[in-house]
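pls ignore typos typing on phone
pyridoxal-5'-phosphate + seq
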Amino acid sequence: MKKIQMVDLQGQYQQIKETVNTSIQEVLNSSSYINGPLVHEFQADLEKYLDVKHVIPCANGTDALQIAMMGLGLEQGDEVITADFTFAATVEVIGLLKLTPVLVDVEPDTFNIDINALKKAITPKTKAIVPVHLFGQCANLEAVLEIAKEHNLFVIEDNAQAIGADYTFKDGTKKKAGTIGNVGTTSFFPSKNLGCYGDGGAIFTNDDELAHILRGIVNHGMYTRYYHDVVGVNSRLDSIQAGVLKAKLPFLDTYCDARRTAAKYYSNAFAENTNIITPKISDFSTHVFHQYTLQITNGKRDELHKHLLEKGIPNAIYYPVALHAQKAYKDIRYKESDFPVTNELIKTVISLPMHTELDTEQLEFITKTILNFVN
Ligand SMILES: *Cc1c(COP(=O)(O)O)cnc(C)c1O
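k done
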């Protein structure tokens, strides 16, 4: 059996080596390392794939979130609501910009922002909601949009984990994750579903005016060369990374399918076990399984984590600490009783190896090892 890895970037690279190498060589031949033609080509390809008017490439997914919030004109003291159960980047940029993060609980079965908790958290100072499409499926966007409309709030989709997922509205309309709110952001970190070979990120919007503002912000606030109209940042996707991404984008749907196939194998294997809850797939979103995350309900999650490592099966706890409990993001207004679901999830979740190169032999070994231990 091939060695099991949490993410098999080398295995995936070997499958597409020639295409990627050609793309990188093209950049080396041109010496156009920053803002080269491949950056623009990838941007156009991604706009087409997502069916969105504007993709603004930037340096990473954290910058993408920060720049989106700057572009929307959010100001000190504005409250931004997001999920308590997510990667810290989401809340970090809110804090950095001196906005006020307001963390709310998530749903027990999808791990995405809880709509009732969201409603309760709205105050006259609320300016934006950041639904995170955690682990690869969309939050309940139609409900989020409704609340946003009612209270005149911006919606910023943190789509770092769900690129390629499809959201279906009640009327049957389908849109790509990240293109539905006022603005969407993503990360091309190597282990993300569309990963480059370094850092990268992008912002998506259908709003022409916002796109113009964002393009200036990523480039030192310049709209005319050497005229700085606003305080901006320096955040670029470099040409080599764009080359890698342009080469990989045509495979994204195949990669999503490969992840779904592995997820299906896992979920079928665990279906009958009463100590394991498998991930729920919402009616309104496809799941692209950035992570495949189980809940272990018999109190043995930590033991399972260790046992699997001993058996050569990598696994991870995403996330072991709720954001509201992190030193950096504590707020006297939070009560533990505000976060019953997150507080439970941090004790029960475990993410299994998930990538495009898992084979049946590996999946069989992983599932059998888990079932033998948990039963
Ligand atoms: C990875 C990730 C980010 C940050 O992306 P970077 O490119 O690492 O800055 C933001 N939000 C979520 C939900 C992520 O998973």
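Residues 60-62, 86-87, 89-90, 132, 158, 160-161, 187, 189, 199, 201 surround pyridoxal-5'-phosphate (CB under 6 Å). Residues 20 and 112 are 34 Å apart (CA to CA). more later
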